[in-house]
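Backbones bend. To wit:
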Amino acid sequence: MNPLRPLAAATFLLGPAIYLAAEAISAAAWKSPRYSYATNWISDLGSATAGVFQGRELNSPLHAVMNSGFIVQGLLFGIATVLLSRTISGRSRFTAVTGVVTMIGYILVGTFHGSLQAQQSGTLALHFTGATLAIVGGNVLALVLGIHWRKTPETRLIGLVSIVLGAFGLVSVVALFLTFGAGLPSGAIERGSVYTIVIWQLAVAAALLRSRGNSRAPRDAATGASTSN
C-alpha cells in the first residue's frame, strides 16, 4: 500500500473543511447588509473595504478569516494534488502542475481582493486572474482525471463523479460570464463552479480512504495503481 494515499486523503479533506468553515464564519459576521449566498460572490467575503462594487454592497468584518481560508485551501489543494500525482499511473505530471496552478490561483484570490478600491489601484486584475486559475484549474483537473480514471474498472466510479463535477463547474463558469449583469443570482451561479472543486476533493479523499480499507482489492480504488507497492 502506498503510504502517500492516506496523507493525500487527509489533505483533500482538510482543505474543504477549513474553506467552508471560513466562508460560513465570515458570512455570518455580515450585519449591514446581510450576506446573501444567492447574490453575493464568494470573494465579497474577502473584501477588506466596505462599499458598493459591481452593484453589490460589501461590508465584511471578518474578511481576514475568508482570505485565510482561500490561502489555506489553496496550499492544501496544491499539497494534496502533488501527493496524489505520486500515487497514480498516468497523468501524474499534469496532476501536479495543474494542482500547483490552482493553488497559486487561490493564494492570489486571498491576497488581492475584489472591490472598488482594488479596481482603482489596479490590483483587481490579479484577483480575477487568481479566480480564473483556481476555478478553471480545479475543474479542468477533475475533468481530465475523471476521463483518465473512467478507463479502468476499479476507478470508474470516481472517474464518472469527477467528469460530472468538472464539466458542471466549467459550464457554470461560462454561465456566470454570459449572464453577468442580467439580474440572475450570480452568487449561486459562481458557487456552481467553486463547490464542484470542494465536492471533488471530498470524493477523491473518500475513494482513497475506501481503497485503503479494502485489503482484498488488487488495485487502488481511487487511482488504479497497484496496492502491492
